[in-house]
Amino acid sequence: MTINTNDLLNSILESLSRIDHTKLEALPDINLYMDQVITFMERELYPTKRHEENPILTKTMINNYVKNNLLPPPEKKKYSKEHILTLVFIYYFKSVLSISDIQNILNPLTDEYFGEKSSPTLEEIYDSIFRLEAHQVERLKEIIREEYIISESAFSDLENLDEEDAAFLQKFTFICLLNFDVYTKKLLIEKIIDSMKKPETSKNSKTNKRKRS
């Protein structure tokens, strides 16, 4: 049994085609105050929103990012291009990773490349990464098409299913396949992050050694 729900697949693929990133040329040439940063991010990342009422960014979010060492503090209450690019990375990471994992990824990045004197600059790193986006989107489309076809045939041998039940099971199977992709990639990302962590010198062990001596 094949459920004719190709409209759903086409809609998903079209939404993937509309995915874009903030271009470097769109970044303001001057440092921005917090309200201006929020307005800029809302305008640039609006297409990624699921619900109209959900903000892309808020003052509380920015303050928490600074407090949790995800974002370097602003200079004289103003945020630079590097701040905005870091916020874009945070925006994409936070839907998948924990705060501590994002810290482990971004802290080395901002420590080494935050500032115009770094080489490469954070802008160059950002641009190099997101230039790969178009290729990745096309690869994702092919994977999604394959998983959709698999989901259509998952319950094709059950002749007693009515059309509504069959449509539900097909969509549920499709969701499970997509979720498995996300889950496995998340596990892989976490393993890579763990391998990137620098071994910490335990202050407690040093203290204990001094006590024993």
Automatic annotation (TrEMBL):
InterPro entries assigned to the protein according to its UniProt record, in alphabetical order: DNA-bd_dom_put_sf, DUF1836
SUPFAM superfamilies: Putative DNA-binding domain
Domain of life: Bacteria
Coiled-coil residue spans: none
Protein name (Swiss-Prot/TrEMBL): DUF1836 domain-containing protein
